[in-house]
Amino acid sequence: MKKTTPVSPEYGLGLQVFKTSCGKTVLGHGGGIPGWVTVSCATADGKVKLAASLNEVDFKDVKLIDKVVDSAFCG
Questions:
Q1: Is Protease found in the keyword set (predicted)?
Q2: What confidence tens digit (pLDDT) does each residue in 7-47 have?
Q3: Cβ-proximal residues to 27 (8 Å cutoff; 6+ apart), any chain
């Protein structure tokens, strides 16, 4: 169920593999529509979880969600 396919980003059955800046692997799913960007993810053992939603104004806001993930799992 956690096996990904060789595309970028790594993706399989709706599950994405996120690599944090501190080297942790986080499993989840992100996405959005014009005006919104979201992410829901957790460590493989489920001890740390994150669900976040952000009003999107432009592309740099999409990159902000990566910083939120890093803060939650590396901070």
A1: yes
A2: 666 555 678 888 899 999 999 988 888 888 889 999 989 99
A3: 2, 15, 16, 17, 18, 41, 42, 43, 44
For the chain, which residues make up each domain, given as ranges?
Answer: 11-65
> Which residue from 33, 34, 40 is spatially nearest to 15, judged by alpha carbons?
40
Exposure string of 12-43, with b = 16+ CB inside 10 Å and e = fewer, is: eeeebbbebeeeeebbbebeeeeeebebebbb
Instruction: Put the strands of the sheet holding 36-43 in their side by side order.
Output: 11-12, 15-19, 25-33, 36-43, 49-55
